[in-house]
Every structure is written in C-alpha cells, then in structure tokens.
Amino acid sequence: MQTFLGWIDGDPSHEDAVLKALGSRGQHDAREELGLSSLRDSFADTFFPGLSTIQTRARYFFFVQWCCELAARRSTEEDILAALHRHEVDLIRALSHLGPRHGVIGIDSQEQLKRMPSDIYWSGLQRLGLRQVEGGAAHWARSVIAAREADRLSPGREGETASSSALGFDPDRPAMPDGFPKTTALDFRLTTEERRALRRRLAGACLDSKGRLQQYNLMTVFPSHRERLPVGLDLWHHPMIPKLAADTQHLLDLARAFAEVMYGSGILYRRIVAKLSLPEGGSLDRYDGHDASFRAWSEGLQSRDVELVISEIDQVVRLGVLTRHTIGPETLAFVKGWAALCQDASALPTSQAAEALVSAREVALKAGAGTSRIRSRPARARWQGGEAQRLDYRWGTAHRFLNDLAGVP
User: Fold this and answer.
1) Which of 30, 198, 304, 313 gets the highest tally of CB atoms within 10 A of its CB?
2) Torsions phi, psi of 272, nearest 5?
3) Residue 26: what are its φ and ψ, rounded to 5°?
C-alpha cells in the first residue's frame, strides 16, 4: 500500500503544513518508539520557535534569503527554481573549505544533496518573519513573477536586481557579501549587522499575529548572554534562566521534569527488547547495560518531578493546540500511566506492570506496520541497541545558534 500526501494548490498554508510534516519525518527522532513527539515538539516550538533539529548554523537564515534574491532575477518559475538550486550548490562549495565538523550542509553530497539549505530553513524563515510569502519554493517563485508583473516591471534578466516587494523576504535583511555565494573564504561568522537583525527576529518569533505563547520564547532572553556556552551545558543550567519570567521558568521546569520522567520509559523499552533478543543470540552485555541504566535512573528519580508531571501534563495539550501538534488521548494516557508507576520508583526495576505498559505502547504504535521490536523477531534482529536519550527540545540547535550570535568560534 502506498501513502500519499497532498494539499490544495491554491492554499499555500496547506502546503506549508504538509512540508513541515515531511520535514519532521526526516529528522532524527530518538523517542519515536514510544510516540512522545507531539509532546516534545509542543514544548520545542514554544521555547524555540523557528528552530529545528536539522538546522546547523545561524547564518544560513541569511544565506538562503540571499540565494533567493539572486534566483529571483530570472524570468520564469522554472528558471528561478533552477537558479536557486545552482546558487545553493555554489554555496556548498564556497563553504567546503571549513571541513565536515562546522555544520556545512551538503558538504559530502554537494549537487546531489536531496535537502538543500532552503528546504531545511524554509519553515523557520517564515516563523521568524523573514519569509513573507506562504507555501513552498515553487509558490514563492510564482509570487515573485506575479509581484513583478503587478509592479509593471520588465521580466528579470541575469544581473538585474528584483525589487524588495517582489522577493517575498524581509526587505531590511543585511546585504549579501561581495561575490556571494562564491565569496572567497565564506564562513559562518555573523557580521554585527547580521547578529543584531537575527537577535531581533529570534526574540520576536511567535505563533501568530496575536503573539500567543511569545512570552515563553527563550530566545527573548538567552541571546543577552554574550559569552560562549560551554560544550555539554544543558538547557536547564543556562546562565540567563534566573532572568526569565516566573511562568516561563515554571513551564521550563515542567519540560525538564517530563524529560526526566519519560527518559526511564525509553531505557526500560530497550531493556525489554534486549531481553527478548537473548534467546535469539542477543548480547547479554547489552541487556545488562540497559538493566544497570534503568536501575540507576530509578534510584535517582525525584518524586517532585513525578508529581509535577502528574499534576500538570494536561496543560501541555493547550501548547499542542497552539503549536499545531495533536496530542492524542492515548499519548496522555501512556504518560499518566507511566508517571503513576513512577510514584513507587523503587519497585520499577522489577515491575511487570511497567514492562506491560511500555510494551503495549510500542506494539500499539508499530505492530500494524510490522516494525514493532516487541512483536517482530526480524525487527529485533535489525536493532542496534543504542542508548536512550533524554528529550532536549532542540537545545542542540539553540546552543549552536547562541554561540554564533555571541560571535565566538
């Protein structure tokens, strides 16, 4: 059976929604085996609107706009999109001198890259108010042509500059460097003008014109810290947290508690699969490792975190509505059931109820597609047995961007 996604071509907001869904499918998701992504993304879109896990460096927000500015000089939709692709390939080549560890998108694939920077940053550009035309790149290209005709401009030719009204991007964006995208020694260092512009846009990012949830946007306060954030610093210990409003600190505390409490369910899931794999030639060391991790987690679990999740997890449903994530009743029931069992943390390592709850959740999510490791021996055989990861709500991306904004290497 094949699955198709589509949208009404005349409604670019539908296209944006589908493109966002497709983009999220391509991102690394360490928690999807237990279906927590709707809760995770509700928090993430609230704290860091416009950011995604596959974004790499902050300056790409300008790189993409500049590539579009150059491409908009062409005269047809097809030529605009082809020029955009060429400029992005030139951008990859111009940045390749930095090497593979500096966040260069497509450094290996180059012209064969399937997801260009414009695709990766397209949704974020709109959320930050930098892209002012809804829909995907094709719809944007058509809008460039329509705006040009409406302004009674001649069809663009190579070397001409499109008017700001025709571009569909922030008219006050910083000017591109000379020779872009083939600028010599191009890198990710933001100019003073670029840092100021991006700080303003990140701080002002919100869900709609009414500013709903904008008070929870951590980028309103975090960029005020102009020093390098050390490697390994977690979200919960950012130096500017004491400067946040009390309700923002409380929501962040709920997110931290949720991440900590649900982390244990991921460890237990791995222990269950490792145990099922033992009669099939699975590694005893792997099972012992997950068992030890689960016992250590349960010993360190704080009752305050458990009670916070139990008492306030329903509030995240409102975040889901506003951030356009559907948090289903089954997901809430799983979280509440797990948190209830966590009230007796000392019993968790030998709890059959905990194993049954986690197993049933994974089976419900994946058995229909034949990918349940609980039910399917072939799925277990393909399992690599990786460690569970705590939710961090796109903090990895935000951490890199904050260092870019601080002007540090």
Assistant:
1) 198
2) -60, -45
3) -90, 0
Task: Write the pLDDT tens digit of every residue in 42-64.
Answer: 999 999 999 999 999 999 999 99
Give the Cα separation of 176 and 162 in Å (integer). 14
Q: What are 277's two structure tokens?
A: 């794999």
Using alpha carbons, select from 218, 194, 173, 212 the residue that is nearest to residue 70. Answer: 173
User: Which amino acid is it at 366?
Assistant: K
* pTM of the predicted structure, to 2 decimals: 0.89
Model confidence pLDDT, tens digit, residues 107-148: 999 989 999 999 999 999 999 999 999 999 999 999 999 988
Taking only the tens place, the pLDDT of each residue in 153-180 is: 455 544 444 555 568 999 999 999 999 9
Q: Which residues of 12-27 are buried (b: 16+ CB within 10 A; e: fewer)?
A: beebbeebbeebbeee
Tokens 């998108």 found at: 105
Closest C-alpha to 214, from 397, 17, 45: 45
Its sign, for the CA torsion 34, 36, 37, 38, is: positive
Q: Tokens representing 16?
A: 């944006």
Q: Distance between CA 111 and CA 109 in Å, rounded?
A: 6
- Residue pLDDT, tens place only, 327-352: 999 999 999 999 999 999 999 999 99
Supply the pLDDT for residue 307.
98
Nearest to 19 by CA among 130, 101, 100, 140: 140
Taking the CA atoms of 98, 102, 105 and 108 in sequence, report the sign of the dihedral they define: positive
